[in-house]
Structures are given as C-alpha cells and as structure tokens.
C-alpha cells in the first residue's frame, strides 16, 4: 500500500481531516537501513529518532512538532506505519541522553554506539553543506507512538 493510501485509510478510520499535516519519508532516504529501522518500529522496539537541525534548514522543511504525523515508508515506497510525535526537542549532539539512545532501539541501544553511528551519519549532512560537524551541533530528537499499521 502506498503512503498516501495508508494516510487516507487512517483518516477515514479516525474521522480525521485528510489535509492534516503529515509527512511521508524513509529513514536514510531509502536503502537497506530504511527497511531495518521501519521494521524496528513495527516490532515496537524503535520509539524515537533523531536528525540534524541543519538537514531541515538545507531542505527548507518545517521542523516536526509534538503531534506531527509521519507515514514511514519502506525502501520500495510501501507504507510501513503511521507515527505521531509525542515529544520533539532540539539538543546539542553532546547532550543526547542514554534514555533517548535506548528509545531509538538500534544496535545495542547504548549511548556509546548511538554516538558512534550518529556522528558518522550526521557528519554527512554537514559535509554536504561544506561545514564541519562537532558535538555542539543541534540535533532534532523525536519521540513517537505508532497510531496505525
């Protein structure tokens, strides 16, 4: 099922206005990790995610807010589920907590591994913008709940 079709079904089921803000996206803009992370959400392991604030600025996208809906897509553009942000915060990379790393549900769920993987990933956004990433750069942290699968 496509992301828009899943959104239509959800809106019909919940009597929600179909024009309510919702984003459609894949983790890492696609690839094997997109499917892996979408499956972690479906398995009820992944309850949070993070990105660089810079990526929103570069792409001229509105930052997520509490209550923002997202249709999570698999790499093949099939819809995995719909999530709703329950908490959004902007935090320097160095201040991301072990609790948040655990909620992201990846690898061993530890902060050290989270920092290692996300430093490499986030540095790519900064490199593309001709900037250097360091531990003071802002991250957008989202906590969410699955509202439809």
Automatic annotation (TrEMBL):
Domain of life assignment: Bacteria
UniProt-listed InterPro entries: ASCH_domain (IPR007374), DUF984 (IPR009326), PUA-like_sf (IPR015947)
A Pfam family recorded for this sequence: ASCH
What the entry lists under Gene3D superfamilies is as follows: Sulfate adenylyltransferase (3.10.400.10)
Tell me the organism: Faecalibacillus intestinalis
ASCH domain ranges (all copies): 25-148
Taxonomic classification, please?
Bacteria, Bacillati, Bacillota, Erysipelotrichia, Erysipelotrichales
CDD domains from the xrefs? ASCH_Ef3133_like (cd06553)
Instruction: Using the record, list the residue span of the signal peptide; answer none if the entry has no such feature.
Output: none
Q: What is this protein called?
A: RNA-binding protein
